[in-house]
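Appendix B. Chain record.
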Amino acid sequence: MSSTRIPISQAEEQARVMRERLDLSTAEIGLTVRTTNCLEERGIFTVRDLLRSSPKDLLSISNFGEKTLEEVYLALEKIGYYRPHRSSSPK
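Structure tokens predicted for this chain:
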């Protein structure tokens, strides 16, 4: 039985999945309602928006502190996006 589909390499498939994840809403990645509301007030609705925001930008949001920033980083890591300069040893 022959297939007319062209096989996709694992790397190409992974890249496609990561591109799709950019369009996930902040609520879909497991952030709390409070955190999602803080981000949406600043116009941050998707993973793509989050990745374009610096830690300084995020920390300038009202009611958004270090603990909330850590929540955001952990949610992003669960879907495969890791912060730059992340230490190799867990806290």
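Further analysis of this model is presented in Appendix C.
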